[in-house]
Every structure is written in C-alpha cells, then in structure tokens.
Design goal:
- The complex is a heterodimer of chains A (about 400) and B (about 270).
- By secondary structure, chain A is an alpha/beta fold.
- Chain A has 2 domains: about 200 residues, D-Maltodextrin-Binding Protein, domain 2, CATH 3.40.190; about 160 residues, 3-Layer(aba) Sandwich (D-Maltodextrin-Binding Protein, domain 2).
- Chain A has 18 helices and 11 strands.
- In chain A, helix 3 packs across helix 14.
- Chain A is globular.
- The N and C termini of chain A lie far apart (about 70 Å).
- About 5% of the residues of chain A have low confidence.
- Chain B has a single domain, classed as MetI-like fold (Orthogonal Bundle).
- Chain B is about 75% helix and about 0% strand.
- Chain B is built from 12 helices and 2 strands, in the order H-E-E-H-H-H-H-H-H-H-H-H-H-H.
- Chain B has a two-stranded antiparallel ribbon with strand order 1-2.
- Chain B is globular, with a radius of gyration of 23 Å.
- Chain B starts with a helix and ends in a 9-residue tail after the last helix.
- The chains are: A alpha/beta (about 400), B mainly alpha (about 270).
- At the A-B interface, helix 1, helix 4, helix 5 and helix 12 of A face helix 2, helix 6, helix 11 and helix 12 of B.
Chain lengths: ~400, ~270
C-alpha cells in the first residue's frame, strides 16, 4: 500500500514536469497573415471569454442581452462574460506568464490606464492587432489623442477603444439651484453648506479622478500634462491645489476627517440625501440611476466651465488567448455603429461612443441622434467640448501619495 | 421554584435578544432587495421595485445556473472531505503512532497559515498540472480550508463514542467493513451532519480560492455577489445575499430533517 502511494506521488510530480513542455505552438503565427475575411471565417462557431468588471448590473445586462445575441446572430460567435476585477485578471495573467502557459482562458479584457501600462510592460497582451479590424479602420480617427494615448501611455495597437468616460458631478435640482462652475464656487458652496460635500478617498478610482480634476482646474492641464514622474516636481506643481484641498477640508462631510472609501458609498450618501453632490466617471450614471429609482427624478449632472477630465476605456487581447480570431471579431463588433449606438442609449448603458463623427454617413449619424438621453444626462457635445485628457498613468500614484500625506492627517 | 422561573425569564431575554440581533440585519438585507429608494431618516423603504429579482430570475444572468453549480460543487467538497476525514479522525482518536502530536497540529496548519500565502504557489503548480481553471482544481483547493474542521471535529466525535462498541461488533464476528457500516457509521451520523453542514458553508462561501484557481471558468455564487457589494448596488447585493443565506439555511434544514427522521427514536450519549 505504502509503495503504491509513493509511486502515485512520483507520478504526479512527473506530470507536473511534463505539463510545462507539452503545449505546442498556437495558430498565432498564421494569424498575422490572415485577411479580415479569413479571421471572421475562423471565428465562426467559437466562444469568446470576455473578462471585465462585473459590478454594474446594467452593463452586464447590455453585454448579455444585446451584444452577445447580436454577435451570435451575425458571426455565430458565442460570448461568455466573466465578471472579474482588473487586478485579479492581471494577477491571473501574470501567473500564467510566469509558467509560460500558452493556452489561457481569457480572450478579451476590459482595460485602460495604469492597468494597460502594467499589462503591456509585462508582455501580457497580444498585438498590435487594431489595424486588422475592419470597423477600427473605417470609423476610428487614428490621429486623435484618444486613439493613440491611454493615460499618456502609447497604445501602439495593443488595445481598441470600447467607450469614453468622463467625470461628471451629480446634484439634485430640487435642493440645489446654482451649481458650482469652478473650484472657487465649489469652496463657496461647501462653506455655505458645511458637512454636505465630500469626495471618495483615493485610491478609489473616481476619488483620485476628482483630485486630478481639481488640480487641472486650479493649475491648468497644460502646466502639468508633461510633468516628470518625480515626487518633488509633482509636489511643487500641484502645491496650489493641495492648499485648496486643505482649505476645503473643514467644510467637508465629517469635517474632512473621514471620507467615503468608494464612489459607490459616496453616491449612496447622495441617494440618501446626506450630501449635496455625487460624482461619477460614467457620465450617464445619473440618468440610469433615475430610471432604476435610486436617484430622485430631479437629479441632474454638470461639469466645470473649464472642463472635466475624461478617459477612454479599451478592449485588449491577452498574450495567451486561445481564440484570438474570435476576440478580434468581438472587438470589431463592439466598434460597429449598431453596438456603439445601443451602448450610448442610457436605457441600456449610457456610455459615450468612440466612433469619429466625421467618418459616419448621414444614416449612421441619425442612429446616434435619434437616441433620447432623458433626464440627468448632458448632451455628448457638451461633454466633449468640456473634456480634459487624463494625466500620465505614472503620475497618478504620486498625486495619490501626496494627497495621503497632506490631507487626511488629523489635527490640522 | 421562583428562582427557577426568574432564571428562565433571564434566559429567554438573552435568547430572544440574540435571535433579534441575528435576524434583524438579515431582514434589513431582504428589504433592500426590494427597495428602490430608502433614504435616511425613513424607517422603511420609500419605493419598491423588482429590478434585482427580475435580473436574478432572468436566464441570461445565469444566476440560477451558477447557484446550482455552486451547490453541486460544495456538496462534492463536503462528501470528499468527509470521506477523507473519517479514517484520519479515527486514527488520531484511537491509535498511537510516532509523531501523532505533530500530525494533530499539522492538520490545523491551513487554519493558521493565511490561505493567500499558500494559494499563490498552489495556483502556479495547478497551472502546470492543468488543474487551474477546472472544476476538479477548485474541488481540490476547497479541501484546504475544509479538512482541518472535518478531521478535528470528527476526532472529538470518535473520542466521545470510544472504540469499544465497534470492537464488540468485531468480537461478535463482523468484519471491519460490516462493523463500520452497521455500527460506527450510525453512531457518528449526527456528528457527520454537523461537520458536513459546516464544511458545506465553508466551501459555499469561498471567494478568493475559487477565484484564483477557477480563474473565472468555474463561477460560483459568491463571485456573482461580490462585484455588486463592491460597486454599492444595494438592491442587487440584497438579492444575491438573500439567496445566499436562504440556500445555506435550506441545506441545513433538509439535511437536519432527513437525518433526524431516520434516527428520531434513539438517543445519543455524546453532545
């Protein structure tokens, strides 16, 4: 008996050694030579595993009930949506990279910013692939800043745009008649309503974006966009903004000694009527929340007169995707007029389209214009004309660090 | 007599306050699953809606299928854990061998060492072995937090019933298999129910290990639940949490009822 057990264990170890070397070459080599038609043909009948954030029921529903059936019908490609946070996805890919696993399980990842930077730097992504996509070539403005840089980082064809987001402030028009249009007016509002304003603490994504937004409003985007990721230099450049946040602090919710940990908590406080301003990096979140009944009917949104920061979110293909053809067809379909328009509809998701308006014909333009935005949504033109690009990805953690050192400290 | 009555009153107060403390948060959670808007300072939700439950029962959300898969997974983990724990617990309870004290501590190691530290290494090995992203891999990794409880509690159960009754059966001519099936198993059955229920809950609520080893290919119920809690969608979180609690409760009741009805007439001298 004992001997048998030992043999069994030895056998297991043997398997573990064999496991490393047995995976052969995938079809990636020929993929570069394939034409778009051939790619679509190869993708037929396959399943695409789409990994991304799964915390928004409406986004999940859009993918499951509109995108997936449409892909199935048009290309006979099935979609398996897996809700997973990007940190976990990257950890999984890093683990697989470490042991050089050639056949992964993720075909498409929803990604942007510093995560894209990390993924690309570590060789976790396949590419460049965007030039292969028919709709990318047809509809995307390839010279625009948004199509080339993701948080100041060169994209290089390793990810294709999915949608655009922008920071907006949310307020209840029944409770607040004059919205603050710049940082001074925000301070004034906070002084008039002590304890009724706050923002999520970084590293919450939206809280961090709020701080960058204030920095851009006070210092000016032009003065900070090319800054080196050096702590002393950043500190000097954003000093006026830090001074401002210090001045604002005593008038905040809980006297600025505690901050909501996430934007979700902030917006729940807003929904419960405890604070005057909510915020979201999804510009039409408020429109959606009015429909689900979380926010009152009188909810509306606004941006600063000098603009709010916005970014683009992207889709990428992991290095070890077992179905790269299917992934390309998936991404290509996301870039179609039909999908971008239904994604734009606040009844479904309310995410800004990424297509270049000047490349659309009249009929296609009408598709977008016919979508009713409803209550609580700013028109696309307003958002795009008040849009500041994101700061470089490597400066963001430094800003968060400086905030941590200066603002939440007690006894100031 | 009076003293006794007074004691019962105190006891009742304690029991009911504990029950209320346990039930009250669950009731709030259940109400959130229907609440469209529940602003402070209202005691009850101001507006009701079915968005959460509609989504839950909508086939495209795969919530029901995931729930079924999750229960199946936890059942398998429970059975495997029990099968492995019975012989191990029996050895620890009755036999003396070299290094017994060491093994008794060693078995508890998964409770002492944080799972994250070990799981990362296991993940890499599982990728090499082809067990990552597979159902089998998730079952195996769930055994890590389950086995210590299984073995530890069953050891105490075995110690409580002692070896004598089984030996009696052997003396009367039963072979070890018959002795186990007809004598030992019925004796430890109530213990198995408690341990089994505990292990089911442990496996059913695993998030991190399932996530890491299952890699999104094996999706369990907590993996649908967590994103909604993180994103602060209180209605969805209410729906999924309610189903989570109800499932665990239902499992308890079913197991408890079936076993109890089987053995209702007998009494046990341990516990």
């Amino acid at each position: 008996m004992k001997k048998l057990a030992i043999y069994f264990i030895l056998l297991l170890f043997l398997f573990s050694l064999v496991g490393c070397s047995s995976n052969g070459q995938g079809s990636t080599k020929s993929l570069e030579e394939k034409t778009w038609k051939e790619i679509v043909e190869t993708a037929r009948g396959t399943t695409v595993n789409f990994y991304g954030w799964g915390g928004d029921q409406r986004v999940n529903q859009w993918i499951d009930e509109i995108l997936a059936p449409s892909l199935k019908e048009k290309y006979n490609v099935k979609v398996n949506r897996v809700g997973m946070n990007i940190d976990d996805i990257l950890n999984k890919l890093l683990g697989e990279k470490q042991v050089d696993k050639k056949n992964g399980s993720i075909d498409v990842v929803w990604i942007n910013g510093e995560n894209f930077y990390t993924a690309k730097k570590n060789g976790l992504l396949y590419g460049p692939f965007t030039k292969k996509l028919a709709n990318f070539n047809k509809y995307i403005d390839k010279d625009s800043h948004d199509a080339n840089y993701d948080f100041g980082f060169l994209i290089d064809g390793y990810e294709a745009p999915y949608g655009k987001a922008q920071l907006v402030f949310i307020y209840d028009s029944a409770k607040l008649s004059n919205v603050p249009r710049n940082y001074q007016e925000l301070l004034k509002l906070a002084k008039e309503n002590p304890g009724k304003i706050t923002y999520p603490a970084p590293p919450d994504f939206t809280g961090s974006a709020f701080i960058r937004n204030m920095i851009c409003d006070i210092v000016g985007f032009e003065n900070i966009k090319d800054i080196e990721p050096d702590k002393e230099k950043v500190k000097e450049a954003i000093a006026p903004a830090i001074e401002y946040l210090k001045e604002l602090k005593p008038y905040l919710w809980m006297k600025g000694e505690a901050y909501p940990a996430t934007v979700a908590q902030l917006n729940n406080l807003f929904a419960d009527g405890e604070i005057l301003l909510g915020m979201s990096y999804t510009p039409y979140l408020a429109a959606g929340k009015i429909q689900t009944g979380d926010f009152p009917e009188t909810t509306d949104t606004f941006v600063f007169e000098n603009g709010n920061i916005g970014n683009t979110h992207f889709l990428a293909i992991p290095f070890n995707s077992p179905n790269k053809e299917g992934a390309m067809v998936f991404i290509n379909h996301v870039l179609s007029v039909e999908m971008q328009a239904s994604k734009y509809d606040p009844n479904n998701w309310g995410d800004l389209p990424v297509l270049d308006n000047s490349k659309l014909n009249e009929e296609e333009k009408n598709v977008f214009e016919n979508i009713k935005l409803g209550k609580g949504a700013l028109p696309q033109e307003t958002l795009l004309s008040h849009r500041i690009p994101e700061l470089p990805a490597d400066v963001i953690p430094i800003i968060e660090e400086i905030w941590m050192e200066n603002i939440p400290k007690k006894g100031e | 007599m009076k003293v006794l009555q007074k004691n019962t009153i105190y006891l009742n107060i304690i029991i009911y306050s504990v029950i209320i403390l346990l039930i009250f948060p669950l009731a709030v959670m259940f109400m959130w699953s229907f609440a469209r808007s529940w602003p402070w300072p209202y005691l009850l939700p101001q507006d009701f809606g079915l968005r959460g439950w509609k989504y839950f029962f909508n086939p495209t959300s795969k919530a029901l299928f995931t729930l079924f898969l999750s229960v199946l997974l936890s059942l398998i983990v429970t059975i495997v854990t029990l099968v492995l724990s019975i012989p191990a617990a029996k050895s620890l309870a009755f036999y003396n061998f070299r290094g017994k004290a060491f093994f008794e501590i060693f078995i508890l190691a998964p409770l002492i060492v944080p799972p994250i530290a070990v799981a990362m290494g296991i993940h890499v090995q599982f990728i090499k072995l082809g067990l990552a992203d597979s159902f089998l891999g998730v079952v195996l990794v769930h055994l890590i937090p389950s086995l210590p409880y299984g073995i530890r509690i069953l050891t105490n159960v075995f110690q409580a019933i002692g070896e004598k009754i089984e030996l009696q059966a052997r003396v009367l001519g039963a072979n070890w298999w018959q002795a186990f099936i007809f004598v030992t198993l019925p004796l430890i059955a109530p213990g198995l129910v408690s341990v089994g229920s505990l292990i089911f809950i442990i496996s059913f609520s695993q998030y991190f290990l399932t996530f890491l080893i299952g890699g999104g290919q094996v999706v369990t119920f907590p993996m649908l639940l967590l994103p909604y809690i993180q994103s602060g969608d209180r209605m969805m979180a209410g729906v999924f949490s309610s189903v989570f609690v109800l499932t665990a409760l239902l499992f308890f009741i079913i197991v408890e009822k079936t076993i109890k009805s089987h053995y209702s007439s007998r009494e046990y001298f341990y516990f």
